[in-house]
Amino acid sequence: MSVLNLKFGVFLYQPEPVEGVDYNFYRLKSESGIVGKPNPKMYTNIACFGDNYMAAKRPDWVSISKDGPSLRTNKKYNLRWDVVCMTNPEAREYNLKIIAESSKVTPGISISSQHFAERDFCVCPRCVEQWRQSGLNWVDWRAKTVTEFLKEVRDVVKNKPLFVNCLPDPLLGKSRFGYDFEAMAEYADYFVIPMFSKAYPTPWYWETIARGYKSFLKKPVFVNFYVRGPNETWDTVAPTKQIMTVATRAARTGIDGIIFLAEKAQWIQEFQKNAVADKETREFLKGHGGDEVLELFNRWEKMLKA
Ligand SMILES: [Zn+2]
Fold first, then answer.
1. Hey, which of 61, 92, 199, 214 has its CA 20 to 30 A from 289?
2. What global pTM score does this model have?
C-alpha cells in the first residue's frame, strides 16, 4: 500500500471557497491586474509582473526586447498576458505591498509571474545598466534578479507558507524566465507548476513535465490543471474524464499536490459531481499508480452524499 499524502487544492478567481480540498487559493490579483479583497479563509494568489491593467495604465512600465514589447500583441512571443519590467522599483513596491497586506490576513501566499517575460527581456535602460553593474553574464544577472525579488517576497510573507509558481518548462526555465531553481528553493516553501490546457487528450506530456520537475526541485511540487477558467463554457474546456486521467497520471510521478483551476466555486462543485458520477473512468484508472486521486473521488462521493 502506498502512503496517502498527496494534497489537493483549488485555484479560484472569486473569493468563495469550496469543500473537499486541502487548499483554497483565491486569485486576489490575476494577470488581469484587477485587485480584489483578501478572504481570510483562503490562501492568496498574486500575479506580480504579468499585469494587463498596469501595462495599459503605465505603458512606460512595460518591459522591452529587441523584438518589441512584452505585450500579448507581440506575436514573436506567446505571451498570455502583458508584462511590466520587474526591475521597476514602483512595480516591485506595488506588488510587495499587496503581498504583505494579504499575508497578514490570509493563511498563506502564492505568487505567479514573479519573473522575466521571456529570454530576450528586459533591455530597458534600467535593466541594461543594472546588468552592466552586476558584472554577471546575461542569464545569471536575470536569475539573480528573480531570486532577489523572491527573497523580498519571502521577507514580507514572513513565516506564512509561500507557494511559488513556475511556468511548465523544466529544461530552459533559467534562460527563458530567470529561474534558478536551486536558489529559489531557499525562499519557496512549495513550487507550483501550472499545466493549463483546454484539453488533456495526451497525459504523457504533462506526466513527463511533472516527473522532470519533481526530479530536481528541492521543495514540494504541486501541479495545477485547468477545469474551467473565466470566459469558458463546459464545451470549451477539457471533459471531466480527461482531467481525472491526467491528474491520476501526474500523481504517480511522486509530486506532492494537485490543484484545480476554475473561475468560481460552482464550477469546481460541478466538476466534483461529474467526477464522482463517472464510475467507469474511476474503475479504469485503478492500477495506474495514482490511487490518491481515486481516494479523492471517494472522499468527494461521501461528501456529496452527506
Ligand atoms: Zn527593464
1. 199
2. 0.97
Provide the H-helix boundaries in the chain.
Answer: 52-57, 89-105, 125-134, 138-157, 173-177, 181-184, 203-216, 240-251, 265-277, 279-284, 291-305
190's enclosing H/E stretch is strand 190-195
pLDDT tens by residue, 167-198: 999 999 999 999 999 999 999 999 999 999 99
Ligand 1: centre distance to CA 84 (Å):
8
How far is the centre of ligand 1, averaged over its atoms, from the C-alpha of 233 (Å)? Answer: 37
Nearest CA among 135, 139, 117, 61 for reference residue 94? 61
- Ligand 1 centre distance from Cα of residue 127 (Å): 4
> How high is the pLDDT of residue 292?
97
> Residue 90's Cα: distance from chain center in Å?
24
The cell for 94 is 506595488
- What is residue 154's three-state secondary structure? helix
What is the Å distance from ligand 1's center to 199 Cα?
35
Q: Is 6 helix (H, G, I), strand (E, B) or coil?
A: coil
pLDDT digit string (tens) for 191-241? Answer: 999 999 999 999 999 999 999 999 999 999 999 999 999 999 999 999 999
